[in-house]
Amino acid sequence: MGKLKEQSVQSKHCSARMRTRIQPSLLTDLPLCKMGLSPSELLMGCRLRTKVPAMPSVLKPNVQDTERQRVQLREDEYRSKQQICHDKQHQARALPPLTTGEQVWVRDQNREGQIVGATKVPRSYLVKTDTSTLRRNRSGLVPTSSKPASPFDGLTVTPRDHALPVDQTP
User: Fold this and answer.
1) Do residues 134 and 106 touch, judged by C-beta distance below 8 A?
2) Element (H or E) spanning 2, and its range?
3) Where are the beta strands (DSSP E) in 2-160?
4) DSSP H helix total and E strand total for the chain
5) Domains and CATH numbers, the chain
6) How far apart are CA 31 and CA 8, in angstroms?
7) Which long-range contacts (CB under 8 A, 24 or more apart) does 147-153 make?
8) Model pTM?
9) How far apart are CA 12 and CA 7, in angstroms?
10) N or C: less crowded end of the chain, CB within 10 Å?
11) Rounded CA separation 100/109 (Å)
């Protein structure tokens, strides 16, 4: 008698465990009432495999997924608005591209260089200086005419018109 009680109790526990295992997968695969698609279908583009029997054709991805395309379009619009607001806030602007052979001022090296060419990385250039060849982003390169702009340009030193008073002793 004792064995039969134990077996019946075990079978009840086993069926309760199976229900808890099956339920979460069923809940994620249940369709939403407004759209007729489950959250997993919206995310993955097809129904998930569950322990509930289903036809193999139902598990294949839906080719005509207009809802997903509409969501993607809304996200793209949101991202483009976000980029416009960011660029406006931070006064970001696109710098004009540099040409090969153009003289530039390398900001972090504080020296002049010449553009060797563009690299595969966007907005990046190879610059030959008098000591080495560097790879720099476009934001760190300032085009120059012949010599770099110095912070002391425009300042001229003129001799004083009057002489300093000399200590005269009688």
Assistant:
1) yes
2) helix 2-28
3) 103-106, 111-118, 124-129, 133-137, 141-143
4) 3, 5
5) 103-143 (2.30.30)
6) 36
7) 147/112, 148/105, 148/111, 148/112, 149/105
8) 0.43
9) 9
10) C
11) 20
- pLDDT of 4 strictly over 80: no
Distance CA 153, CA 137 (A): 26
CA-CA distance, 100 to 113, in Å (whole number)?
A: 11
pLDDT tens for 131-154 read 999 999 999 999 997 554 455 555
- pLDDT at position 51, please? 75
Q: Both tokens of residue 45?
A: 């583009």
Q: Which two tokens stand for residue 167?
A: 């200590």
* Token output for 135: 């790879």
Which residue intervals of 38-160 are DSSP H helices? 39-44, 66-89
Give CA–CA dist 123/109, Å, rounded: 18
Residues sharing a CB contact under 8 Å with residue 76, sequence separation 6 or more, in sequence order: none
**What's the CA gap between 10 and 1, in Å, rounded?**
14
pLDDT digits (tens, 9 = 90+) for 16-34: 554 555 455 444 656 555 5
